[in-house]
Structures are given as C-alpha cells and as structure tokens.
Amino acid sequence: MADPTGIDALIDLMARLPGLGPRSARRAVLVLLKKRGQLMAPLAQALAEVALSAKDCHVCGNISTTDICPICTEPSRATGEICVVEDVADLWAMERGQVFKGRYHVLGGTLSALDAVGPDELGIPRLVARVADEGVQEVILALNATVDGQTTAHYIADALAPTAVQITTLAQGVPIGGELDYLDDGTIGAALRARRKL
Amino acid sequence: MADPTGIDALIDLMARLPGLGPRSARRAVLVLLKKRGQLMAPLAQALAEVALSAKDCHVCGNISTTDICPICTEPSRATGEICVVEDVADLWAMERGQVFKGRYHVLGGTLSALDAVGPDELGIPRLVARVADEGVQEVILALNATVDGQTTAHYIADALAPTAVQITTLAQGVPIGGELDYLDDGTIGAALRARRKL
Ligand SMILES: [Zn+2]
Ligand SMILES: [Zn+2]
User: Fold this and answer.
1) Which of A117, A166, A29 is nearest to B181 (CA)?
2) What angle do CA A100, A101, A105 make, to 5 degrees?
3) Would the ipTM clear 0.90, i.e. be above it?
4) Residue B144 φ then ψ, to 5°
5) How far is the alpha carbon of A90 from chain B, nearest alpha carbon, in Å?
6) Radius of gyration for chain B, computed over Cα atoms and rounded to the nearest angstrom
7) Which of A104, A166, B28, B129 has the greatest count of CB atoms below 10 A from its CB?
8) Taking CB atoms and an 8 Å cutoff, what residues of chain A touch B91?
9) From CA A25, how far away is CA A145, in angstroms rounded?
C-alpha cells in the first residue's frame, strides 16, 4: 500500500473500532490525511488527553476524566435515587433521556455463572453499602430486558431487601430482548416515568 | 452527558469521520474508553505521528510520511509507466489490485468549469513534464467512469499527444458510473490487464 509504516498501522488501528471495517477505516484515514490540521491533529490530541485522564468513578463506576465523576459530585443529583445500569453506554442513554435526575451505579456486566461473573465483580456489595451511606430511598433497576439482565435485577432486589429501600424497575417501553443503548431517547423517558415496583 | 469536557469533545470529533454518525461515534468512544491502554493510547499516538509526518509527494501527489513517496523512490517501479488517478483512494485501490508495477500521478480531482478546477490545479503540466523527464513510454488513464473523469481523460490525452507517449485506459471491468475505490481488487487487476489504447 501507500506507506507500510505509519499510515497502514493507523488504518489497522482504526479498523478495530466498532462500525468500521477495513474499507471504511481506509476511507476514514484518507479523510483524516486530507484534513491533517483541522481534524487529524485535534483528534489525536483529544484521544491522548482522554486516554490519560479517563478513569472509572470510585463511587458509581461511570467513566469520566475526574476521580469521582461529575454526576456523583453534583450536589443537586443527591436525590436519594440510584439508577442501576449494566454499562456506561446505558448510563449515557439514560442521561440522553433527560428524565432521571439522581445518581447511578454501573455494574459493568451481568451475573454469569458461565463467565464466572459474581456479585463482587459487579459491585453489588458496594451498591448495598451506598444505599445505607447515602440515605437512598429508591433504587431503579434499569437493566436490559434480557434473561441475564433480569436475573441480575432479581439478585440485586434480594440483596437490597434487608435495607427496606424501595426498588423499582423500568416498565413501559423497553421491548423484550431490547437493549437500552438502542432505544430512542423519548422511549427511555417514558419507561422511567412509568416505572413500577419490583 | 457523562462528561461535558473531554469525552463529549472526542465523540464530536469522531462523529466527523465518514461512516460514523453520532451513535456509532459514541459506541466507538466507549470501546476506546474501555481499551484505553491497548487501543486508545496507540491510536492517539499513531494519529499524532501521521498528522505530523504525512505529506503530499512532490512528484506524484501520493500521501506518505516521506517528502517523496516510497513508490516514487523505489527503483523497481521505474517501469516507464505512469498510472493517472483522480485521488489517493484510487491509488490505494490500484495498489491492492497488485497488478500495476509502475508509478502514479494523482490529479486530486477532475476538470470542472463549475468549481474552477483547471489543468494547473490537477498537475497536468507537471504530468507532461514527467513524461519527458522520466522517459515514460505509457500513461495509463485510470480515471473514474464518470462524465467528469472521462472529460479529464480526454483532456490529458490531448495534452500528451505531442509527446508521442502511448496512452491507454482501463477497459474491461469498470462499470459505467462506477468508482474505482468501490471495486473489488480482482476487477481492478482484470481491468488493468485488459487495458486498451485510447
Ligand atoms: Zn460517579
Ligand atoms: Zn510519489
């Protein structure tokens, strides 16, 4: 190809991104090569800065560029509600819905005997501790409507039962087998407003 | 969203790449955030290096990380053949075909009265000079099978007529209205092998 050193290596790296195959990675790199100053250099800079500064929030598991994420440090979000999500992608999807004003707990997956993912890996003991420590009144289980997601939701409900916190779950709007991150923002808002007790 | 500073700015930059909309840019950034060490940092590094070192070849217009590109400096490619292409993407497509062993001339576009793109902007006088300077025996016009591409091909053939160089064009395999960069590699090889005099 044009240049076996830098440019080909860059195409290979780009092709590892979701949604970009080898062909679209080549086209993306060509656009970058033609916009070296306006796009390629700023993108390199932004990636380098975020790669250095991004970290998992100690409290909720969200990814941000601060030790504790902006949602956990924002006083107005201490509403006594914690929304439990599987993944940061789901947290972002909830935020786009612009209905939930509380804080989050990002599990980072679901319980899986097959993959040896247990409650500790998902931070469930930490969630139980947060409910007491932060005076939480309601935990909203916003897990995907999949078998693993619902199994995990029931496990968390059982783990939280001794705390007497109210446990709710997204109700209306989440299609069977659907994943939060693919839902439109309005549907997520509707599902949150119509949440029901588990 | 999660972090109004670094991460959102990164998503906005990623969304400007071809093939990535806002949603796929978010998903790409999430994958990068989870693979900060293995993928995000190396990608930042590769982009920064290429942004600094990439340049247009003085001779042929190819983009590489050297002042004169590896194809122009490789002695074995002084075959007396120059392949004229519209864009670096087309040069890459030709190289993937692995049939052409000569050198290139990248026009960077096609003649267009509307956009005020004339022969000078496309380096056509420079191509005519190369034919004499490099002792070229054959110029292969590998332009897209579009009206603009074919108009430009005929203009170049006229400009080269006084040099008595043989002028050929890709024949078989390029569909009407088709663009080189979208062809499979085998078709490009076949079109090159079956090239005919213009
Ligand atoms: Zn947090
Ligand atoms: Zn060159």
Assistant:
1) A29
2) 75
3) no
4) -60, 150
5) 11
6) 20
7) A104
8) 2
9) 33
Using a CB-CB cut-off of 8 Å, the residues of chain A touching B30 are: 87-89, 92
Structure tokens at A48: 């380098």
Q: How many helices (H) and strands (E) does chain B have?
A: 8, 7
Contact A95 B2 (CB under 8 A): yes
Q: Cβ contact (<8 Å) for A50 and B181?
A: no
Scan for tokens 């199994």, then name that residue.
A151
Would you tell me how many other CB atoms lie within 10 Å of the CB of residue B23? Answer: 13
pLDDT top residue among B194 and B17: B17
Residue in the block written with tokens 């409507």? A145
Q: Please, which residues have CB within 8 angstroms of residue A75's CB and are 6 or more apart in sequence?
A: none
CA proximity to A105, closest of A121, A89, A119, A126? A126
In this structure, the strands spanning B196-197 and B166-169 are antiparallel
Tell me the pLDDT tens digit for each residue of B131-162. 999 989 999 998 887 788 889 999 999 999 99
For position A124, what pLDDT does the model report?
93
Inform me whether the pLDDT recorded for A2 exceeds 70: no
Strands B63-64 vs A196-197: parallel, antiparallel or unpaired: unpaired
- Compute the Cα dihedral for B179, B75, B101, B162 and give only its sign: positive
What's the angle, vertex CA A110, arms to CA A109 and CA A112, rounded to 5? Answer: 120
pLDDT digits (tens, 9 = 90+) for A171-192: 655 665 667 677 767 667 767 7
Query: Cβ(A109)–Cβ(A101) under 8 Å?
Result: no
Kindly provide the residue ranges of all beta strands, DSSP E only, lying in chain B, ordered along the sequence: 55-56, 63-64, 81-85, 103-106, 138-141, 166-169, 196-197
Which residue segments constitute the domains of chain B, with CATH numbers given?
A: 7-53 (1.10.8), 66-169 (3.40.1360.10)
- Both tokens of A61, joined, read 């598991």
Closest Cα in chain A, distance from residue B88 (Å) = 8
Q: Which pLDDT band holds residue B188 (cuts at 50, 70, 90)?
A: confident
Q: Phi and psi for B191 in degrees, rounded to 5?
A: -65, -35
pLDDT value at position A98?
83
